[in-house]
């Protein structure tokens, strides 16, 4: 009889727990979907130049679904693809913008679950302000430094990793040298996350670009 | 009475610095002040809510299944926090990542449920949850200020000192251990001095 009583108590507790979670879920469902949609749109807008009109395409045989193209002032700007690669904790999802020749024009990390303070720094932005003059200053939106360093790299060539000083602390000249070598700087203490972003950028996108040019679309 | 309770939660029975409970999440999220504060407040909400429910139902829960019941209650509130954070604070949710679901296994919360809420009335349990949560948050903030400044030369995401070369080890787990050890050492030193008087 005692076993029965224990089971009944556990069932009741679990029932109420399920009810509470279900209620919260139904109340937050729309808002969460809205936030995810907003994050996707912002990521896409960030990989293309400002003011570009973005068109969504259904992929095909060798293309992912969906992918996007952008035009600005009637000029073709480039493609954007979404891909992911295994990071330290979970998959890192990236949105990559490339022009027709395979040069990266923009990169955003859409979602990641890397270690806070280490791998999560793929999203870190650097501020020119100090604590004493920047705390209440108007802050403009800046792009994360880690993904910014991919601008101008060739997606069809291997992207190397330079360890040492991080990109945001490098001089303009050093940054240009890195770009010439098709290299990015690693996040200190988070080489696995660094590599995962590169993998996400490099894994399928060169194939997508050649598939598109073979089909002769949007040139 | 409130003052005495606050002192108990933040100073004399501080969950991290004195009781040494919940060190795992403390090590993991105390890398920046924003993360530490966010984690502290999320855990405080769960702690207060679970203390309230557990002190209300303590009469119905048989001794033998109390731990699973407590865990179910705690996990429910953690899921609620996570859903609400996803909906309204997506940036904090993204930066705390995996550590929000791990509040479930934060032993501060189960510890207070077992040691306090299951033996005390609603009001006292609520106050206990609040002061313990505050103590947890304060300790996390102290640790994360040290680690953010030393490990990345930043505070609240802004640069801290010009020309200071940050020591990345303080962002990594070993730096977390070092910081906790130093802060605990100072707290214990002050405590012993007081007792000696």
Structure write-up:
The complex is a heterodimer of chains A (219) and B (197). Chain A has 219 residues and is α+β, with helices and mostly antiparallel strands. In chain A, 39% of the residues lie in helices and 21% in strands. Chain A is built from six helices and seven strands; from the N terminus they run H-E-E-E-E-E-H-H-E-H-E-H-H. The longest helix of chain A is centred in the first third of the chain and has 46 residues. Chain A is globular, with a radius of gyration of 22 Å. Chain B contains eight helices and two strands; from the N terminus they run αααααααββα. Chain B is mainly alpha-helical. A two-stranded antiparallel ribbon of chain B has the order 1-2. The chains are: A alpha+beta (219), B mainly alpha (197). The interface between A and B is large, with 39 and 44 residues.
DSSP summary, beta strand count of chain A: 7
Low confidence ranges of chain B: none
Structural class given helices, strands, pairing of chain B?
A: mainly alpha
How far apart the termini of chain A lie comes to 76 Å
Mean pLDDT of chain A: 82
Helix content of chain B: over 70%
Strand content of chain B: under 5%
Q: Could you give the order of strands across the largest sheet of chain A?
A: 1-2-3-4-5
Assembly form of the protein: heterodimer
The 3D shape of chain B can be described as globular
Provide the structure class of chain A. Answer: alpha+beta
Count of helical stretches of chain B: 8
In total, the number of strands of chain B is: 2
Strand line-up across the major sheet of chain B = 1-2
Low-confidence residue ranges of chain A? none
**Count of separate DSSP helical elements of chain A:** 6
Shape of chain A: globular
Radius of gyration of chain A: 22 Å
Radius of gyration of chain B: 18 Å
């Amino acid at each position: 009889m005692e076993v029965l009583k224990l089971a009944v108590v556990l069932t009741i507790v679990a029932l109420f727990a399920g009810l509470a979670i279900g209620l919260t879920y139904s109340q937050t469902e729309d808002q969460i979907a809205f936030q995810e949609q907003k994050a996707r749109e912002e990521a896409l807008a960030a990989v293309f130049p400002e003011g570009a009109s973005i068109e969504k395409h259904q992929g095909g045989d060798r293309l992912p679904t969906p992918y996007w193209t952008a035009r600005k002032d009637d000029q073709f700007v480039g493609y954007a693809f979404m891909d992911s690669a295994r990071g330290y904790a979970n998959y890192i999802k990236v949105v990559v913008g490339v022009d027709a020749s395979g040069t990266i024009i923009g990169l955003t990390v859409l979602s990641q679950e890397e270690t806070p303070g280490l791998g999560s720094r793929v999203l870190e932005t650097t501020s020119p302000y100090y604590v004493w003059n920047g705390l209440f200053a108007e802050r403009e939106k800046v792009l994360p430094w880690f993904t910014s360093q991919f601008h101008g790299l060739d997606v069809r060539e291997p992207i190397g990793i330079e360890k040492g000083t991080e990109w945001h602390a490098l001089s303009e000249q050093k940054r240009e040298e890195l770009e010439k070598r098709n290299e990015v700087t690693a996040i200190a203490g988070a080489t696995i996350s660094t590599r995962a972003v590169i993998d996400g950028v490099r894994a399928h996108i060169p194939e997508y670009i050649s598939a598109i040019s073979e089909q002769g679309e949007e040139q | 009475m409130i003052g005495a309770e606050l002192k108990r939660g933040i100073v004399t029975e501080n969950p991290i610095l004195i009781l040494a409970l919940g060190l795992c999440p403390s090590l993991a999220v105390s890398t920046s002040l924003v993360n530490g504060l966010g984690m502290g407040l999320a855990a405080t909400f769960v702690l207060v809510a679970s203390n309230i429910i557990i002190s209300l139902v303590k009469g119905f829960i048989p001794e033998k299944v109390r731990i699973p019941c407590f865990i179910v209650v705690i996990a429910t509130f953690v899921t609620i926090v996570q859903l609400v954070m996803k909906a309204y604070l997506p940036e904090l949710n993204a930066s705390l990542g995996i550590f929000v679901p791990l509040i479930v296994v934060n032993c501060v919360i189960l510890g207070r449920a077992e040691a306090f809420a299951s033996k005390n009335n609603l009001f006292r349990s609520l106050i206990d949850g609040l002061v313990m949560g505050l103590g947890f948050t304060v300790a996390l903030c102290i640790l994360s200020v040290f680690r953010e400044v030393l490990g990345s030369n930043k505070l609240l995401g802004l640069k801290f000192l010009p020309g200071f070369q940050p020591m990345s080890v303080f962002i990594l787990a070993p730096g977390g251990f070092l910081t906790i050890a130093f802060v605990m050492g100072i707290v214990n030193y002050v405590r012993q001095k007081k007792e000696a008087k």
